[in-house]
Request: fold
Amino acid sequence: MTPPADKPVADLSLDELRIAVAVEVMGWSQVSEGEPYFWPTPEMVKEILAKHPDVIGVDYFPAPDFPRDISAAWVVVLHLKSKGYDVSVSDNADDYWKSECRVDFNDETFVSVTGRDTAPIAICCAALLAVRKEGEK
Reply:
């Protein structure tokens, strides 16, 4: 189920965070409510067909596990960078700072998320906060 856009990021479960990032950050359209499956964007279809010209059609796909998988979370970082954001990620070993993700926009700190257990969670939270903050302007 898609979490409400007004639910605070800190209150989202990892599964809700996964869906919120897919919908709000990546801009994907959910196939049906309650299912973590999405239709590909036109850009994704072009990319798939360019790489695999023998493909006849492109179907829906499951959302990557953004908050649990660093390779999936890195796709979020690359997406933000393609939109003009500057993203920095650090994974500190101490118990206080833990993992941090900072998103800058127009040479100013836009969002900073610290104290998350893993870098993928920090990336997802910062990305979602940045997109929501940009939407407020």
Observations:
- Residues 9-136 form a domain with the Bacillus phage protein fold (CATH 3.30.2120.10).
